[in-house]
Automatic annotation (TrEMBL):
Residues 101-173 form the GHMP kinase N-terminal domain. It comes from the Bacteria. Pfam families: GalKase_gal_bdg (PF10509), GHMP_kinases_C (PF08544), GHMP_kinases_N (PF00288). It is an enzyme of class 2 (transferase). Its EC number is 2.7.1.6. Keywords: ATP-binding, Carbohydrate metabolism, Galactose metabolism, Kinase, Nucleotide-binding, Transferase. Belongs to the GHMP kinase family. GalK subfamily. It comes from Deinococcus knuensis. The keyword Endoplasmic reticulum does not apply. NCBIfam families: gal_kin (TIGR00131). This is Galactokinase. The keyword Membrane does not apply.
Length: 358
């Protein structure tokens, strides 16, 4: 089972690094998306759940016009002016969050996280939401959980340069790990639903770094916006006849086909009342094939890991999760079998794989 790579004692605390106690601490979880991938920027329905791993921040005013952000796990500090951006890397997320969260004066920020980075598990949303919760606890920000998510999304758009949807930030802000969040990414209407009966969620990191994730993401987004324009709809969620996408030129046809079929898969998963694990698993498998073949955002190693999972008798279904181009895979497995499934699959996959959840 997963144990922290570094004992907590070796990571400097806020007190040790900044020489005084913080004013507040706050946390937010990462998320894994079960179904509804690459639809949250086309008004689609998504089904993420929070993972147990969290990002924790400690904050305290420093009496200057600069923010100082200390990434304790990396032992790295970044300093930047109040309201400004930071020089690349992880500090941009904090800089953007402090700026859009309205921090008026310099803050010292201490960050620790056990959300795997760059695995499609929303380490960035967890960081943004944790900092916004900290600003809320300091009395600097007065915002609902929904507005916290919307501010966090603006950080990605305006400070990081990823034109992402709202799934990750909403999941980090309102989901929990014992239910799945059904989110309408257009209206933000949401319901916490029970996970499929007699099953559990297994997440394995493929160990493939998500190299093309940012550029590939913005390119896909532009392609499906163009597809929606050609089809005369505001967003692909509004496509009434799935056959209409077949008239589009390639690759817009394949990209739109994924978004439209993926949205239908979420609705199929929830049809007929209760959420059945076997039916949910079949839809997860179909989602993976669609992301691999039509959306072209998978990776050969991720495909290999998904195939090993899908072949295991205690697995209902498995797919890549998050933006893709590497990163984690999610499987729905028979209750109580996640550890055994992970062990069997990882021994065939190779040493770079790692069980992340449970
Ligand atoms: P990940 O893979 O967690 O970065 C990205 C987007 C989401 C969503 C998924 C694909 C960011 C911050 N988030 O998630 O909004 O579009 O891809 O479903 O880029
Ligand atoms: Mg991210």
């Amino acid at each position: 089972m997963s144990t922290p790579a570094t004992p907590a004692a070796s990571i400097p605390t806020f007190e040790q690094h900044f020489g005084r106690a913080p004013q507040v601490t706050a946390s937010a979880p990462g998320r894994v998306n079960l179904l509804g991938e690459h639809t949250d920027y086309q008004g689609g329905f998504v089904l993420p759940t929070a993972i147990p791993q969290v990002t924790t921040v400690a904050l305290g005013a420093n009496g200057t016009r600069e923010h100082r952000v200390f990434a304790a796990d990396l032992n790295e500090q970044s300093t930047f002016p109040v309201g400004g951006n930071a020089e690349g890397g992880f500090a941009r997320y904090v800089a953007g969050t402090l700026a859009l969260g309205g921090a008026p004066d310099g803050l010292d920020v201490h960050v620790t996280s056990n959300v795997p980075m760059g695995a499609g598990l929303s380490s960035s949303a967890a960081l943004e939401v944790a900092v916004l919760r900290g600003l809320r606890d300091l009395g600097i920000l007065d915002a609902s959980d929904e507005r916290v998510a919307l501010i966090a999304q603006r950080v990605e758009h305006e400070f990081v340069g990823v034109q992402c949807g709202i799934m990750d930030q909403m999941a980090s802000s309102v989901a929990n790990s014992t239910t799945m969040l059904l989110l309408d990414t257009r209206s933000l209407e949401r319901h916490l639903l029970p996970l499929p009966a007699a099953s559990e969620v297994l997440v394995i990191d493929s160990g493939v770094p998500r190299k093309l994730a940012e550029s590939g993401y913005n390119e896909r987004r532009a392609q499906v916006e163009e597809a929606a324009r050609l089809l005369g709809v505001t967003e692909l969620r509004d496509v009434q006849d799935p056959q209409s996408v077949e008239a589009l030129p390639e690759p817009l046809r394949e990209r739109a086909r994924h978004v439209v079929s993926e949205n239908a898969r979420v609705q199929a998963a929830l049809a007929e009342g209760g959420v059945d694990a076997a039916r949910f698993g079949v839809l997860m498998n179909a989602s993976h094939a669609s992301l691999r073949d039509d959306y072209a955002v998978s990776h050969p190693r991720v495909d290999a890991l998904v195939a090993l999972l899908q072949a295991h008798p205690d697995v209902f279904g498995a797919r890549m999760t998050g933006a893709g181009f590497g990163g984690a895979v999610v499987a729905l497995v028979r209750a109580g079998q996640a550890g055994a499934v992970a062990q069997a699959v990882l021994s065939q996959y190779g040493p770079e794989g790692r069980q992340v959840v449970p």
